[in-house]
Write a structure and sequence with these properties.
Helices cover 59% and strands 7% of the residues. The chain contains 4 helices and 5 strands, in the order βββββαααα. Strand 2 and strand 3 form a beta hairpin.
Length: 203
């Protein structure tokens, strides 16, 4: 692992593998990103060969679970300390000398870490629920929008069909008008001839 590019939610999801031995991040150690973004954390679920972008941290007097929670808590401070240079990073000396506050009892440390872990899970579940609700709302809005578009297109279709029908009826009426005029002329001519014949008969 060269950096945090292959970090997962909790543990790395490795893509690249090597046989060359180097700096080792042992199983259950805290993999800490020392280059941008500084402070990103994963837990090693196996032994990893790590590059310059990572540090492997193991607690001696501190329970690993407590140390993980503490490092998450002070991440903004790590990032603030790493800024001001051309490349955002924190060196091993600064990381090793970083002060850590912790209870002397490992049992107490573990209890604190357990409580914070429960809080983290509650936050994650809440965020997941909010994300789901937002997605459901987005889907519902999309369906309403799609239904509105479909209704509009359907209205346009029926309007087009109605205008086409109306135009067809107008054309039929226009076609019938000459026929009616011709028929009327024939009827008038017929009446005129009949009237003329009647007048000739009287004479």
């Amino acid at each position: 692992l060269q950096g945090c590019a292959e970090f997962g939610r909790v543990s790395p999801i490795p893509v690249l593998f090597c046989r060359q031995e180097g700096k080792l991040g042992k199983l259950d150690s805290i993999l800490f990103s020392v280059r941008a973004p500084v402070g990103k954390i994963n837990i090693a679920d196996r032994d990893y060969v790590i590059g310059r972008g990572l540090a492997a941290i193991e607690g001696v007097k501190i329970a690993s679970t407590y140390l993980t929670q503490y490092l998450h808590f002070v991440t903004p401070e790590f990032r603030a300390a790493s800024q001001g240079s051309t490349f955002e990073a924190i060196n091993s000396s600064a990381l090793s000398a970083w002060p850590i506050s912790f209870p002397t009892s490992k049992a107490e440390q573990s209890k604190i870490a357990e409580i914070l872990s429960i809080v983290d899970q509650a936050i994650e579940q809440t965020e997941a629920l909010i994300a789901k609700q937002q997605l459901d709302l987005l889907k519902r809005n999309f369906l309403l929008y799609a239904a509105g578009i479909a209704t509009f297109l359907l209205a346009l279709y029926f309007l087009f069909r109605f205008r086409k029908y109306k135009r067809k009826q107008q054309l039929l009426m226009e076609e019938k008008k000459p026929q009616q005029s011709l028929q009327e002329k024939k009827e008038e001519e017929k009446k005129r001839k009949k009237k003329t014949a009647e007048m000739d008969g009287k004479q």
